[in-house]
Known about the structure:
By secondary structure, the protein is an alpha+beta fold. It has 19 helices and 20 strands. The strands form 4 sheets. Strands 13, 14, 15, 16, 17, 18, 19 and 20 form an 8-stranded mixed sheet that branches. A hairpin with an 8-residue loop joins strand 19 (579-585) and strand 20 (594-599). Helix 17 (608-625) packs antiparallel against helix 18. It is elongated and about 150 Å long.
Amino acid sequence: MTRLRMSFRTRISVVLVVVLALAFGLVLVLVQDVTRERVQEDFAGRFARAVAALRQVQRMRADFVERELASLTTGHPQFRTILSTASLAGADLGFGPGPATGGLRDANLRIRSLLPSIPLAFASDVFVVASGEGELLFTKVDPDRFGDDLSTLPVLRRAAAAAGAADAWPGAPEALDGARLVPDGDQGGLYQVWAEPVVFDGDVHGFVIVGDRMDRAFLERLRELTGLDLALSDGTRLVATTLSGEVGGDLADRLLRDPPRDDVGRVRGFQLAEERFLVSAAEVVPGFGADHAALLVLQSLDAELAFLAGLRRTVLLLGGAILLVALGFGFGVARRVTRPLAELGQATRRLGAGDLSTQVRVRTGDELEQLADAFNEMAAGLLDRERIRRTFERFVSKDVAEAVLRRPELAPPSGERRELSVAFFDMGGFTSLAEALPPEDLVERLNAYFEVTCQAVFDEAGTLNQFYGDGVLAFFGAPVPHVDHAQRACRAARRALASLGELSARFEADGLPPLRARVGVHTGECVVGELGALDRRQYGAVGDAVNLASRLEGANKFYGTQVIASEATVSAAGFSLAVRELDWIRVVGRQGTERIFEVLPGDEPSGPADRRMLAAYARGLEDWRKRSFGDARAAFVEALEAVPEDGPSRAFLSRLDDVAGGRLPEDWSPVFEPGEK
């Protein structure tokens, strides 16, 4: 057997290369395995936090619903009466079966009339009321619908058995014989619903089902808490996800092929758009299984392991450099061992002086020659090592530093069109007050007026635009957008008048004229942004809505009112305001007519006299527009008998005096045209 002959230098080189290669390979394998385990452990922890966040949101919402329903049951006798009557209407009461449509229709109408007093109906996407027999009384998405049998709904059956239950409904409309329970046309999520029985006197008199949408926006909030991508499945298909593009499309296809039936809490690997993900599922409603509705939690495995590729390159480069250094060291050792001692000494001194080209020549054919050869090899190895060191330094000096990413500063938009509600406040009787006070006291009183007016605006998140002498212009809905800006503007007007009433009492106690204030409110499109010169800018709004609000404020003088709002404002505010229609007017500078309303001080008329006055005024206004002037006069007189200080009734009686005096033009119109602001 031929023995493989290898030089000492070769053997050292081979051993070093093999050992170092094994060491670096083992390090890479260990790092990769440990990293995978850490990624999975981290994913498991984040998954648990995502599920815990979902459960906390569900518990908070369920507790809120339970409290609101308890408050509704105990503190709303009208609601309880409606449910009791509806339950009786659905029973035969011993007289045999018969239609209960009339009783259910009555319950439907009465519940709709109570909606403004049920905050839960406005705060929920799904709001359904059923009788104790499971008959539909009201559904928010189809208010006119009633009488459908909802007793087959699983959530209703469980609520009856367990005093409350939860379920998840798909985003597509849930229908039973035409009864729509969730909004139409929404394929972007699920609805988490809670059903609670309404119990009093020991009996179940009805059920209330409340639901909130779980969509991409909901998932984005959870994603901010967990740092993971999420998706919602209705058991067979994807309904919402924080993933986008091709990855989201692949996930939807994957769920169609392989729905998460038995994957609750189990980590799986998905390949989505050529990217590996870790995926785990949780039940949206505990106890139903992932085939009913599931929350999928996803984490990109490739993104978490991306640094391994860079680490692998770094290790290989570093390992190659170390191998080269080790080889040079081995060569040097071999050469030093094999040089003759004499020449080795001289060569060593030259070598120590820096002459790395030093060589010794020994041809003894024995160990000395081998030692000399080893010395020469060592010198050559040292020369190679120096060359390698310089090469390595050049290589390291070419590393590129990472760029520093800077986030741009956010700035509010300039010149943006937005729908706002504009309120113009003005102090009545300012001229009399200015004549009665010295300038210093006048400024003090005026500042007190501004203080309470501005505070009322701030309390409703409004924005002060400008002071006009004794007037204040404010708007609502910018820069922070509010969907209820019309309500806020009217509430601010009422707040200001209430506070100014107290301020007026102090003025009168000082012997000054009473303080009166007028407010005009209009809702319309404005341009809002930074206005003014380059070095003198302020945030404000301009547009026709501002001008009309000012004109409506002035119209108060003709009606003896304090707050006049346009039809646009009243329509935007909805049922949240107590108003009465005043008139049709055509203000200065505008060709069209405006239907105007008085905003009443409270949410409803304060007493029987006010209610009689409002009813009589409404009749008088209708008769006036029909030219039934005699009937109109009688109605306005009746209104004044109920409330003698009612300014609008006096204003119309004055107009009727003009009609009686023969001053009715041929082109008479019921539209009032103020001759001034």
